[in-house]
Amino acid sequence: MLVRKEVLDNNSQIRDILKPLTLYLNEDIIIRLNYLVDYEGLELQTVAKNYLRGLGLIK
Prior knowledge:
By secondary structure, the protein is mostly helical. It has helices at about 5-10, 10-20, 25-40, 45-55. The two termini are about 25 Å apart.
């Protein structure tokens, strides 16, 4: 789950925006990305950008 149910219930457009990301994220990947931020000390934005770039989703 990327977003809490309450947030989705109150903002239905978020579901449509985030749906494509569910193809690229699973529990193992989220754990790895969190590890990079929480234990390796990398910036959240850097980890997110690098992951999305690696997938070819952003430039």
